[in-house]
Amino acid sequence: MDDDKVFKALADPGRRMLLDRLCEKNGQTLGQLCETMDMKRQSVTQHLGLLEQANLISTVRRGREKLHFINPVPLYEVYERWIRKFEEGRLSLLHDLKQELERKKT
């Protein structure tokens, strides 16, 4: 995984909104995505290109149409690498706090 490409792609609110739209309804065409975005078709195309370079979306041709699909794997890899380890520590602290509070009750 290329973390830099993923983080760069996720840094832009327009690209995050495109991912949200694909999460709501996967397999949309450029035209369908443009209908829900407040930006020009060329801008949407550029954003989709960056998302594809970051492997956050994939495309499939169906006749003349190009369908866009979200790829959650890079997001999961970011979670595994950068988020999960912080959650484990926090959950461990909450567990210890719970144990301490329960001991004080008795």
Automatic annotation (TrEMBL):
It holds the Pfam family HTH_20. InterPro entries: ArsR-like_HTH (IPR011991), HTH_ArsR_DNA-bd_dom (IPR001845), WH-like_DNA-bd_sf (IPR036388), WH_DNA-bd_sf (IPR036390). Residues 1-90 form the HTH arsR-type domain. GO terms for molecular function: DNA-binding transcription factor activity. It comes from the Bacteria. SMART domains: HTH_ARSR (SM00418). This is Helix-turn-helix transcriptional regulator. It comes from Qingshengfaniella alkalisoli.
